[in-house]
Every structure is written in C-alpha cells, then in structure tokens.
Amino acid sequence: MKEMTASVKAVELINQNVYRISLEADNLTFVAGQYLMVVLPTGEKVPYSIGSAPHELPNLTLYVLVSDSASLASKVVEHIQSNTSITIKAPGGDCHLQNGVLDTHPEHILLIAGGTGFAQIKSLYSELVEQNFTGKVSFYWGLRSAEDVFAQDWLEEAHKYTPFTLDVIVNEASDQWHGRSGWLYEAVLADHPDLSQYVAFVSGSVGMVYGTFDQLELKGLSKDRCFSDVFAYAPHPNKPAL
C-alpha cells in the first residue's frame, strides 16, 4: 500500500446513518474488491472498501456507517468534511477479482453483502458488468429494515443489467417494504439449494460473514471457494483457534 493524497469532492448523508464520500485520487490503481485506509491526523488508519469500480478512476466512492457520534467512523467523517484533501493508503486486500477465481471459470458467482459491506460487493458487481462476464452472477444485499436501504439510484441501474440478478433482503418486514424479507442466507439458499459448484464473495461484519458462510457451507460451498476480507483478520468466533 502506498500513501497518497485524495481530493474531497462530496460528503453526503444518504440515509439516517450512512455517508457517501466522493474522492478523487489521480495516482491510484486498484482491483475491484480492494480497500483503502483513511489516515487521520492522529496517525490512525481506518480501512474502508472502495465502493466504486476501477474503470471509474480517478473517482472513488466510500460508504461510511456512523452508528454514534463517539465512534471512530464519526471522526473519519468529521475529518473528511473539514478538509479539501485527505491522506489515504491504498490499495489493500486479497478479496478481489484477480485472486485467481476467474481463472477457474466459475459457472456461478454469489456476491453477498450485509449493511455497508455493500461497498465492496458493488465494486465487484460493477467490474463484472464492465468485463462482460459471461457466467451467472447473483448479488444479495441484506439490511435490517427498509429505512436502512441506500444507493437506490445505483440499484435501479443495476437491476437493468438482466444477465445478473440483484436482490435486497430486509430482516424486518413492514408496510413500507415490498421486496423480500427474512434472513439473508435464507434468501440465498431458497434460490440456490446446491452450492457445490459456486464461488462466493461475502462482505459485512465478522458475525454476518461467518454466520452466512456456516449456513452456505452446509449446502456445499467450500471454504476455498468463498472469499472475504474477514477471513484475513478475524478467527471464526465459534471455532477455537488451533
């Protein structure tokens, strides 16, 4: 990863607690699925998946969830809002499209995101569209409620690309929600009951990633065909380290 300067183009609150941050970085190259680190004045380096695809460079998009005003994410947003340029380190991460998975000519790729894990999966999806990938791709995005959905304009455009499928699933059904509801993994398995020949990219919290993988593994998805940044830094919470 190398350190560089990125210009701040916009910081927008796009639902009750998610900010879309638009940056411009002239000297950056990356592969869809990778992340960057925002370097704070304290020296802290905070990782965020790059939500835009490589063909959109020099423009970059981040999606930052701010759960409370005392959180590190809140400090990141405040720092970006108060500066016309920021320091970033990039790119990082091995959960991307050049990790060899496309060389295996997978018949079907699952892209699974929870919350702002959407950023990484959106980048992967957009890049597969850009590459005119001829295999099957299914994108599943899980959120708590209808109020948590964001990036509606992008979702509308993505739905138009009919060779791939895209489903948004909320945990809490309501009168305001007319789409699918329930658990994310249940939606995936309802559509794909046998995953023995599938490849999957999963992005979200540690609990979400491992909880989802555990359910998909029962239906044939192998660990060596499932990719997540979480696997690189967090041990399985329910399995003792050997």
Features:
6 helices; 23% helix; 242 residues; globular; six-stranded parallel beta sheet; alpha/beta; six-stranded antiparallel beta sheet; 12 strands
* Strand residue percentage: 25-35%
Q: Are there runs of 5+ residues with pLDDT below 50, and where?
A: none
Largest sheet descriptor: 6 strands, antiparallel
Helical residue percent band: 10-25%
Shape: globular
Q: What's the β-strand tally?
A: 12
Count of alpha and pi helical runs: 6
Gap between N and C termini: 30 Å
> What letter string, H or E per element, gives the SSE order?
EEEEEHEEHEHEEHEHEH
What structural class is derived from the secondary structure elements?
A: alpha/beta
* Radius of gyration over all CA atoms, rounded: 18 Å
Give the strand line-up of the largest sheet: 4-3-6-1-2-5
- Oligomeric assembly: single chain
Mean pLDDT: 94
Describe the overall structure:
The structure is a single chain. α4 (184-191) packs parallel to α5 (206-217). The radius of gyration is 18 Å and the shape is globular. The mean pLDDT is 94. The chain is 23% helix and 31% strand. The strands form 2 sheets. A 6-stranded antiparallel β-sheet has the order 4-3-6-1-2-5. A 6-stranded parallel β-sheet has the order 10-9-8-7-11-12, sandwiched between helices. It has 242 residues and is an alpha/beta fold.
Provide a concise account of the structure shown:
With 242 residues, the chain is of the alpha/beta class. It has helices at residues 72-81, 118-130, 152-159, 184-191, 206-217, 230-233; strands at 2-13, 18-24, 35-39, 45-49, 59-65, 85-92, 108-114, 136-143, 165-170, 180-181, 198-203, 226-227.
